[in-house]
Amino acid sequence: MAKKIILLGSTGSIGTQSLDVARMQGYEVVGLAAHSRAEKLLEQIREFHPRYAAVVDEAAADRVERELAGFENPPQLLRGPEGLRQLAGLGEADVVLNAVVGIAGLPATLAALESGTDVALANKESLVTGGHLVTQAVKAAGVKLLPVDSEHSAIFQCLQDAHSAKTLTKILLTASGGPFFGMKKEELAGKTRADALKHPNWNMGAKITIDSATLMNKGLELIEAVWLFGLPPEKIQIVVQRQSIIHSMVQFSDNSVLAQLGLPDMRIPIQYALTWPDRLPSPVGELDFAALKTLTFDVADEETFRCLAACKKAIAKGGLGPCAANGANEEAVRLFLEDKIGFLDIGRLVEAVVDSDTYGGTYTLKDVYDCDRMARDYVLSHL
């Protein structure tokens, strides 16, 4: 029988590439969810004929509802944030792939896990903002949390040997360095939205591309790795690998290192999350070592790119520290994309929020939302 999937964030970069994989592998798409891109979602509904569709934005949901009236067998339409959570928690799929951007993906991740469904996680903010809640839900439900981010997929692939996983001593988390690698603060001061959106290797959505430019994305991934693989943050080293061919590495107690390599194409980690533990033919081409002349390595400049430093502070504080950093970043990136603050203001504001409190201790889902709102309010009051 064809594997059944529910895809959240289907109209974004990860979502559309996930559908490339679903198309090639013949998966049944039970449900699709989008925030506001109604036309793209309708196009996907026409091709994949899901039983359910969710739209978060009310105006977009109204448009989709009108258009679905003309469909022969329309999907059941779910609306708003609650509709997204409801779709994730249906329990009618083999796996829910969560490609929602931001903290908005956390309730959906929890709903899917609590329904007893495996989750392929491309929404790193679920673990960043609510890592304790997510890992508890995984344990309680006895399901799998499968990483989709290329770096975490690489680590996951290198740890498939259970015995080797027990001797893991270090994670080498790779970073492209983004479009501004090697620049100092004075060079970054005047960088614009257009400058920051020019990623050298990956084709991603606007928010994630800005996070790559500030190295916030790498800070979030470090926090995510702590939750996924159980190593303390001081055992996770950021390594700049400009070609984005080595997606991450792991080091064992004998100081041997394993790496996962591949073209910089997200369909490889997406497919592995969906086919695990099997490997199937991929829509991605082979890595041509005859053409690959250079692999370079460097260190990340935390003095210049303060978002990375702020994330390290946040995970060291524990509790809701990472949630505060994430909320501040989401708000600051929104303002930067609207040309309301400068590029360096993003790191300044994220670090200031993290420095503003201790954040330790246990927390509930309500606490996560309260902390996120506090962080956003802090940003708006310290422009």
Indicate the radius of gyration in whole angstroms.
Answer: 20 Å
Estimate what percentage of residues fall within beta strands: 15-25%
Summed over residues and divided by their number, the pLDDT gives a mean of 96
- Looking at CATH, the homologous superfamily of the largest domain is RNA polymerase sigma factor, region 2, helix turn helix motif
Distance between the termini: 55 Å
- Computed structural class: alpha/beta
Classify the fold: give the CATH topology of the largest domain. Answer: Rna Polymerase Sigma Factor, Chain: A
Taking pLDDT < 50 over at least 5 consecutive residues as the criterion, the unreliable ranges are none
Number of E-type strands: 12
Summarize the entry for a quick read.
The protein has 383 residues and is an alpha/beta fold.
What keywords describe this structure?
Rna Polymerase Sigma Factor, Chain: A; 2 domains; 383 residues; alpha/beta; 5-stranded mixed sheet; Rossmann fold
